[in-house]
Amino acid sequence: MTLSKTLKTLAISAGLGLMLGGLAQGQMATQPTPPPEMDAWLKAAKLGSYDTGKHDWAEIEKLAIEEGEVIIYSASSRMGKVASAFMEKYPGIKATSYDLGSVKTIEKTVREQNANLFNVDIVTTGGSGQVIHELWAKNRIVNFVPDMFYDRIPAENREPVLIRVLEAVVFMYNGEAYPDQPPVKNMWELTEAPWKGKVVMKDPLQSLTNYMGVATLVQNADELAAAYKRYTGKDIVLSDGVPDAGYEYIYRLLRNDLVILKSGSKSAAASGKPGQAKPPTSFGAMTYYRYNFSRGLVNAFYKDIDPAAKIIYPTYTAIARQAPNPNAAKLFTAFLLGSTELTADTKLEKPYKEGRSAELLLGLLPYFEPGSKSPRDDVPFPEGGDAWDAMKAWTVDPDFMFREGPKVRDFWIQESAG
Which segments of 82-206 are extended strands (E)? Predict the structure, then answer.
């Protein structure tokens, strides 16, 4: 199937098709002047251009308790635990988190605001291209960085939208079956006959996490081409109509009977279930490594796979346009980032969910695990989390995602159906 025919395909997946749009080469997102009704709300809430960067937290807490509620649209099921912990700390505020997944979080926010419904206070999700271009750049969310953390968060993690947590997409293998070293050293090995039908991933059309991972493979086509030559000693020969090594890698994975599932946890279980003689490799969120501890899996990371071991993607958090409870939203945002007493030298002890560790981690607690990293530069790693810094990374680019994402999606739809 040629790429030209692929890109003419009009198949549109629900959710992703609604959000994805074109962006001219090199164009960057900007936030327009807010309309009068939004500007009035911003002024009353001391947000946007009315945010001085100095926050009176005693006043914010007082007003938040008067509001009495905070509503969260989230891509993470773990946000419910954060909401429960928040209510323990602030019993006068009811926190309700809706676990919508990444696609539906953005889709629901857009549809409600298009209907002039402003029901939500916090929007927190991945999907960097859509968050920046469909939400922030269209005045659907407002960035808010609590002042006590401003200097503790690098600029790239706080602008244009605050990153709540950094996570990664990785290849994982069964550490029990391969105790001494990983079964492959180069990504291209997974496209060959020994791995036919033995690479597993959640459908990227149902997961913005995996969608970002697949698109970032395409973005790094030159590095994939160089890795191919290191592996084979030859320049890569592209299939008919495939423009570069990034698309070629996806093409060959699919032609090698890639197993596509509807669940990321099932993908992780496929590679990590103990007792397998010839287990598959999985591609998905690094955070599924936590199931080694909670579900008895035996996954391990490909820490040195050529050309990159992980693809970093952000999960953002912002205050929704015309949020009914803006002060509760500010308080919840600060809670998400942990205690000000937490530093890089803090010694946190397991179980993290109890005692002093839980008091310091606050909203970071459910994400304090290998495969996740705080946006703050002064938070220690959890046990086993130091692998993060040792793994070569590519990083999701919001502009590439928004500009080229539709082509990647259409290519995937066409070739996965072939």
Answer: 94-99, 122-125, 141-142, 163-174, 199-202
For 17, residues 6+ apart whose C-beta sits below 8 A from its C-beta are none
Structure tokens at 372: 């996740």
Give dist(CA 65, CA 305) in Å, integer: 50
Q: Which CATH number fits domain 22-166+314-338: 3.40.190.10, 3.60.20.10, 3.20.20.10, 3.40.30.10?
A: 3.40.190.10
What phi, psi does 385 have (nearest 5°)?
-80, -10
Helix (H, G, I), strand (E, B) or coil at 257: coil
Distance between CA atoms of residues 305 and 327, nearest Å:
45
- Single-letter residue type at 303: K
- For residues 261 and 252, the answer to whether their CB atoms sit within 8 Å is no
User: How far is the C-alpha of 190 from the C-alpha of 193, rounded, in Å?
Assistant: 8
160: cis peptide before it, omega within 30°? Answer: yes
CA distances from 218 to 13, 243, 258, 400, 412 (A): 20, 10, 17, 10, 11
CA 126 remoteness from chain centre: 4
CATH architecture for residues 3-11+169-312+393-416 = 3-Layer(aba) Sandwich (3.40)
HEC readout, 293-353: HHCCCCEEECCCCECCCEEEEEEEEEEECCCCCHHHHHHHHHHHCCCCCCCCCCCCCCCCC
pLDDT along the chain (418 residues), means of 10: 34 40 53 96 98 97 98 93 97 96 90 97 88 94 98 96 95 97 97 98 88 94 98 97 96 97 94 96 92 93 95 95 98 98 93 93 93 93 83 92 91 88
Distance of alpha carbon 230 from the chain centroid: 30
